[in-house]
Amino acid sequence: MTIVHHMKCACHRCLCVVSLENAIRKDGKYYCFDGCAEGHERP
Can the keyword Transmembrane helix be found in this entry's annotation (predicted)? Predict the structure, then answer.
């Protein structure tokens, strides 16, 4: 069994790897910050 603790932000323009514990979860996906979760581009 493999346990995942980190993964790439679900935003296709972002290259961040986020901790699942600290990520922003929306619609079953994990994001690095509110802007990505809301569909905005990262500055």
Answer: no
